[in-house]
Write a structure and sequence with these properties.
This protein is an alpha+beta fold. Helix 1 crosses helix 2, helix 1 crosses helix 4 and helix 2 crosses helix 3. A hairpin with a 4-residue loop joins strand 1 and strand 2. It is elongated. A 5-stranded mixed beta sheet has the order 4-3-5-16-6, covered by helices on one side. It is built from 9 helices and 16 strands.
């Protein structure tokens, strides 16, 4: 062969991600090592596969043809490996999971660390990002997200049946500003607003007696990570819209107080999801079995 399998995988990864950094992260190597792999392959075959500038890395015309030809072959090789893996009694290799920071916190101990305890020889890589990604194209075995965020073409396995939203504030905050009795009262409060991965500000969601509506609440503090919102609420910076799992200990010891609970309804919880295919690798099959065992309401 005029290119090793690792070099061919490197070319496809850079083509998919449009750059070396994300591709290197997927492959588990440094950007410089990845660049060197591709340079060696280009020198060997005598063709430039990528046009590089300081701002972009794009396939050359020869590179486009090269990737189109090798991608089906690599897919066939991966399928052959997966089929062989069906005969394993124990999982092996690396399990790659894509999820959000909040979901990772919820499942780290009961699912992911338990998986490591049961299969200590397995390597487990968790990648957290706010935006939803194509787990198949980016080389992940599975993803973990709230049910409504899962793409429709995936196999879905519930981890938690529901997530209950809560609005909380510190005792110090309520001593200064009082408690809201209805959602409309929030317009006179300082709310900690959340910016989503898309860049838009999250509108708080309410439901009562079958009526649902959202509010773009006021606030001078906007954060893009739920743990920061929790910390800010503890310090009396304002009211935060979080979930009951995050604030359970704070509610128990009264460092945070819940309000407007009659106006909030649970929503579908976390799911494990993965591409639908006939053969499931042993490493993923073991995770599926574990989720079925430990899933909670």
């Amino acid at each position: 062969m005029r290119g090793t399998l690792a070099e061919l995988e490197a070319v496809v990864a850079v083509a998919v991600h449009g750059g070396f950094r994300a591709a290197a992260r997927e492959l588990g190597i440094s950007s410089s090592a990845l660049s060197q792999q591709i340079a060696v392959l280009e020198a060997r075959i005598g063709v430039r596969l990528f046009n590089r500038t300081t701002r972009s890395v794009v396939l050359s015309s020869a590179g486009e043809q090269f990737v189109a030809e090798i991608t089906p072959a690599l897919a066939a090789i991966r399928k052959a490996v997966d089929l062989a893996d069906e005969h394993r009694t124990e999982p092996s290799g690396t399990l790659r999971i894509n999820t959000s920071v909040g979901a990772a916190r919820m499942v780290l101990n009961p699912v992911l660390l338990e998986y490591k305890r049961r299969y200590p020889q397995m390597a487990v890589e968790i990648v957290t990002e706010g935006a939803l990604v194509d787990i198949n194209a980016q080389g992940f075995d599975a993803g973990i997200r709230i049910r409504e965020a899962v793409p429709p073409d995936m196999v879905i396995l519930p981890i938690s049946r529901f997530v209950r939203p809560v609005i909380v504030g510190s005792p110090r905050y309520f001593e200064r500003f009082g408690r809201p009795s209805v959602p409309a009262d929030l317009m006179d409060h300082d709310c900690i607003r959340g910016r989503m991965a898309s860049g838009s500000v999250y509108h708080w969601e309410f439901e009562r007696h079958g009526e649902t509506f959202t509010m773009n609440v006021p606030g001078l503090l906007t954060l893009d990570e739920s743990d920061l919102m929790l910390r800010a609420a503890r310090e009396g910076a304002g009211l935060a819209y979080l979930n009951s799992w995050q604030v359970g200990p704070d509610l128990a010891n009264n460092t945070l107080i819940e309000v407007l609970e009659d106006w909030l309804s649970p929503y579908p919880g976390l799911c494990l999801y993965y591409p639908g295919r006939r053969h499931i690798p042993a490493k993923l099959r073991a995770l599926v079995d574990l989720v079925r065992e430990v899933a909670w309401d």
